[in-house]
Write a structure and sequence with these properties.
globular
Amino acid sequence: MPVINQRKNCFLCENKMNYLDYKDIQLMHRFMSPHAKILGKKRTGTCSTHQKVVARALKRARHMALMPFVPSL
């Protein structure tokens, strides 16, 4: 019988990353939906601590115009 509710491991904890650089656009696309929204921690598998780090980095990148506020058509 397959395990349905298997918990995902935090990508940032596995790679021992305490800081997410807001200039690393390729890595941050992993935490965004195609509609340019920040994905929740259940969807990405990040822990609470790192979800806050991800959200802060994405908001900084948006403010610096590195990431879009709205999806590009």
